[in-house]
Amino acid sequence: MQVQTTDVLVIGAGPAGTVAASIVNQAGYQVRIVEKLKVPRFVIGESLLPRCMEALEEAGFLDAVKERKFQEKGGAKFVKNGKTCDYQFARQFTKGWGWTWQVPRAEFDKTLADTVEKMGVPIDYETTVTAIEFQGSESTTTVVDKNGMASQIKARFIIDGSGYGRVIPKLFNLDRPSHLPPRKALFTHTVDLRRELSDEPNRITIVVHKPAVWIWIIPFSNGVTSLGFVGDPSFFHSYSGGPEQQLRSLIADEPYLKERFKGVEFLFEPRVLESWSTTTDRFYGEGYVLTGNVTEFLDPVFSSGVTLATVSSQIAGKLVVEKLKGNDVDWENDYMNIMMQGVDTFRSYVLAWYEGTLDTIFFADDQDPLINSQICSVLAGYLWDLDNPYVKNHKTGLTRLATIINYRDSQQTQSQ
Ligand SMILES: Cc1cc2nc3c(=O)[nH]c(=O)nc-3n(C[C@H](O)[C@H](O)[C@H](O)COP(=O)(O)OP(=O)(O)OC[C@H]3O[C@@H](n4cnc5c(N)ncnc54)[C@H](O)[C@@H]3O)c2cc1C
Question: Is the peptide bond before 219 cis (omega within 30 degrees of 0)?
Answer without folding.
Answer: no
